[in-house]
Design a protein that fits this description.
Largest sheet: 5 strands, antiparallel
Number of helices: 3
CATH architecture of the largest domain: Sandwich
Order of helices and strands: EEHHHEEEEEEEE
Shape: flat
Number of domains: 2
CATH topology of the largest domain: Immunoglobulin-like
Length: 246
C-alpha cells in the first residue's frame, strides 16, 4: 500500500538514537494497514469487533511513534548543546525527524480513511459509496490513483455488482468528462464488486492536458433495489491528498 524508508542510525559517543524503535513501529503500522485493507478487498468482509481492535491498535502505534519522534528531537537538541555532533551529522538527524513527521501524517491519513469505513457518519442501512481518496503518482504527467470504499451496514447479504468511475470537469471552458480511456485499471464493464461488509476499489487515472478536474463521478449497478444504480459525486480538491494541492 505504501512503504517507509529504513532509517539510518547515527552513533554519537555512546549515545544510541531511537531509530530502531521508530523503524519497527513504522513497519508494524504499515503491516497492520495492509492486512486490514487487503483482507477487506480480497475477502469481501470483516469481523466488526476485530476491526475496532485493529483501529485501536493503530491509534496506539501512532501515539508510540509520535513519542519516539519527540524523544529524538530532544536528543538532537541535547547533542547540539553539548557539541558532540558536527553540522553534517546534525543535519542528517534533523532530516530524519522531518521524515518521521511525514510518516506520522501519512499514517494518520490512512487511519482516517479506515475509521470512516468502520464508523461512518452516515449509518443508513444498506449499500453505500462511502468515501474516496485521491493520491498523486506524478504531478507532471497528471497521473493519480484513487481508492473508493464501498460499505454495507446493518445487513449481511453478499453484494455483487459493477462500479464505473468518471472524472468531470472542463477543457478550455467546455464541460468535459473523462471516461474509460483515461483509466488504466478500469475494465470495460467497470470494477467488479463482491463483498458483505466493505470493499476497497483501487485504480488510477491520467488527466489529459488542459483538463481541469472538478468531481469524481461514481456509479454502481447491480447492488440496489431493482435496476436503479447507486450514484455519488465527490469534489476533486476536497478528496485530493494535501501534498498535491500546493
Amino acid at each position: 500500500m505504501f512503504s517507509f524508508r529504513s532509517p539510518r542510525v547515527v552513533v554519537v559517543q555512546n549515545q544510541r538514537l531511537p531509530w530502531v524503535m521508530i523503524g519497527v513501529v513504522a513497519v508494524v503500522v504499515a503491516t497492520l494497514l495492509w492486512f486490514v485493507f487487503d483482507y477487506g478487498r480480497e475477502r469481501g468482509g470483516f469481523d466488526s469487533a476485530e476491526a475496532v481492535k485493529q483501529q485501536r491498535d493503530l491509534q496506539n502505534t501512532i501515539a508510540a511513534l509520535e513519542s519516539e519522534r519527540a524523544q529524538l528531537k530532544k536528543e538532537l537538541s541535547r547533542i547540539h548543546r553539548s557539541g558532540q555532533v558536527d553540522g553534517v551529522a546534525a543535519e542528517v538527524v534533523r532530516q530524519r525527524v522531518l521524515a518521521s513527521q511525514d510518516e506520522v501524517a501519512h499514517i494518520k491519513e490512512e487511519l482516517a480513511f479506515y475509521r470512516n469505513i468502520v464508523s461512518p457518519e452516515d449509518r443508513a442501512r444498506g449499500v453505500n459509496i462511502q468515501s474516496l481518496k485521491l493520491n498523486p503518482v506524478d504531478l507532471e504527467t497528471r497521473h493519480f490513483t484513487y481508492r473508493i470504499a464501498m460499505v454495507q451496514l446493518l445487513d449481511s447479504r453478499r453484494v455483487t455488482g459493477r462500479m464505473r468511475v468518471r472524472v468531470s470537469g472542463t477543457h478550455d471552458g467546455v464541460a468535459t468528462v473523462l471516461e474509460r480511456s483515461a483509466f488504466a485499471q478500469q475494465p470495460d464493464k467497470g470494477h467488479k464488486l463482491g463483498f458483505k461488509s466493505f470493499q476497497i476499489v483501487q485504480g488510477s487515472v491520467r488527466l489529459t492536458p488542459g483538463f481541469v478536474p472538478e468531481a469524481v463521478e461514481i456509479e454502481v449497478s447491480g447492488v440496489g433495489k431493482g435496476d436503479t444504480p447507486l450514484r455519488r459525486s465527490f469534489d476533486w480538491r476536497r478528496n485530493l491528498a494535501p501534498s498535491a494541492q500546493n
